[in-house]
Specification:
Layout lengths: L10 H9 L5 H15 L9 E4 L3 H15 L9 E5 L27 H8 L3 E6 L3 H4 L9 E2 L3 E2 L16 H8 L5 E6 L5 H6 L3 E4 L19 E6 L2 H11 L33 E4 L10 H16 L3 E3 L15 H15 L11 H10 L1 H4 L5 H7 L8 H26 L3 E5 L4 H7 L3 E8 L5 E7 L5 H15 L9
Parallel strand pairs: 2-3, 2-6, 9-10, 9-11
Antiparallel strand pairs: 1-3, 4-5, 6-8, 7-8, 7-12, 11-13, 12-13
Helix pairs in contact: 2-3, 10-13, 14-15
Length: 484
């Protein structure tokens, strides 16, 4: 069978072929293995995949047999998914966050989100490379670099364009058709940035919509996993398969009555008609170059043409005083990481942030190419979250991002969402714990991708998906990279 039609194939397309007996989950795994063989560690050397699941074939074959006997479990049945390497999988793959300190660490159980995906019938294809410790290790580490995996390369300009971080491997793998969909994680921009940089769709959900248990953490307040895909429809399908109330993560209880296991009903091609959108131009558009700004102006024009009421500009009241202050993350990282590491088996030598720092110092030539300044700053905190600097920053972040930030802008103008370029608004949404979705908005003359991002209030994923899908269907900007 000629499998080249699978390049850019969607979940709906492959499910139709599998229902007709023209395609199997095993065929899909084989296709993506061949793609990886040609492009990941050879050819353009994207270096997006850190580890391949040796059981992927057998899992796919078992799901094919189940389909024949009982039918599919749902839209994710037999769909290959790549998982970012800071998310636990209880199989033959490691969970390392890209670090050498955890390079040989095996998780005792699946992260809750992986449990949900397996229950939905997904094939866990492998683990993706990332910016080490989700880009919370040192001040000057390049996006997409880890000491265990090396440097991820952007498929639209390998070695030229930034991959975005920290879910760089997930973004590049999906963009380059090394998998159908992937899971990333975000604390502040780590899904939105690589999605925009690699011309794919990324959803950073409301914190609490998806369980954080079994994910190597940074921040109690800001961490979340989320889907990355080539289309809004595929991202919506993956998002629905990931939600659920997890007894091990109390924040998910807040999603009861506000989460969906199926977001596809919100895929409305007319979803921009009647929507009220605010262009958060002051501050957030200031750093765009002329080509990026031109793309955003075209995108804003499209929003109006598709029936949206566009308020331009909209000022976020707190935007003039917001800074990339890491005080909250620096203080939360130590107790969060220590809680994760202490659960590792007794024979494992790494059980604390201090142990990670010590290991890196003892293996400095391999592990500390860019240093570990952020790890050291975090270790210098008490780990008890009692410092005035932390408490003041946490309160200020909530007020500036929610009350006098996104909430104020949405309420003042009666908006459904704010519109940002790429991941420029990721910081305020991350501090608020609010959702965002980024969609391809085109390419600069030299071929560099740019995304448009829609941000709303907590649990507004249905509205954001409706808006993003309508924009995507009206523009169809995404083109696959030329992997030469």
């Amino acid at each position: 069978m000629n499998d080249q039609w699978l390049v850019e194939a969607t979940i709906a397309q492959v499910q139709e072929k599998m229902a007709n007996g023209e395609l199997s989950a095993r065929d899909l795994v084989l296709f993506y293995m061949k793609q990886a063989a040609v492009y990941d560690k050879a050819g353009v050397h994207l270096n997006a995949i850190l580890e391949w699941n040796p059981d992927a074939f057998q899992i796919a074959e078992a799901l094919d047999q189940e389909r024949k006997l009982r039918g599919p479990r749902g839209p994710m049945h037999g769909i290959p998914v790549l998982i970012k390497d800071n998310i636990d999988t209880a199989d033959k793959m490691h969970t390392s966050a890209g670090s050498l300190a955890l390079a040989h660490s095996y998780a005792a159980k699946d992260a809750y989100v992986v449990e949900r995906l397996r229950e939905a019938g997904a094939v866990i294809l492998g683990k993706t490379n990332l910016t080490e410790f989700a880009n919370f290790m040192t001040d000057h580490m390049p996006n997409g670099y880890s000491s265990r995996g090396g440097q991820v390369r952007n498929s639209y300009g390998p070695g030229i364009f930034d991959t975005g971080g920290s879910s760089s491997g997930s973004g590049v793998a999906v963009a380059a058709n090394l998998a159908m969909v992937a899971v990333g994680t975000e604390t502040s921009g780590s899904i939105l940035s690589p999605a925009s940089s690699n011309s794919v769709v990324g959803i950073k959900p409301t914190v609490g919509l998806i369980s954080r248990s079994g994910i190597i953490p940074i921040s109690f307040r800001q961490d979340t996993a989320g889907p990355m895909a080539r289309t809004v429809a595929d991202a919506a399908i993956l998002l629905g398969a990931m939600t659920g109330v997890d007894q091990a993560d109390p924040v998910t209880a807040a999603s009861i009555g506000r989460a969906y296991t199926d977001y596809t009903p919100f895929l409305d091609p007319q979803g921009l008609a009647g929507a009220r959108l605010g262009i958060a131009r002051p501050v957030y558009y200031d750093d765009l170059d002329k080509d990026q700004l031109a793309l955003m102006e075209l995108a804003i024009q499209t929003l109006s043409q598709q029936g949206a009421t566009v308020i331009d500009p909209v000022t976020i009241p707190s935007s003039s005083r917001l800074t990339p202050d890491m005080a909250v993350m620096l203080h939360e990282f130590k107790p969060a990481l220590n809680a994760y590491l202490r659960a590792l088996p007794d024979h494992w030598p790494i059980h604390s942030l201090q142990d990670v720092i010590r290991f890196n110092e003892e293996h400095a030539e391999q592990a500390l190419r860019y240093g570990q300044s952020i790890l050291e700053q975090a270790e210098a905190t008490s780990g008890t979250l009692t410092e005035p600097a932390y408490l003041e920053s946490r309160a200020r972040d909530l007020y500036d991002s929610q009350t006098d930030g996104i909430d104020a802008a949405l309420v003042e103008h009666g908006l459904d969402a704010l519109v940002f370029p790429a991941n420029y608004g990721a910081g305020i949404a991350a501090k608020a714990g609010y959702p965002s979705i980024t969609v391809p908005a085109g390419y600069t003359p030299e071929g560099k991708p740019l995304g448009i991002t829609f941000t709303g209030k907590a649990y507004s994923e249905p509205q954001l998906i409706r808006i993003a899908y309508a924009y995507e269907q009206a523009t169809q900007h995404r083109v696959p990279p030329k992997l030469v």
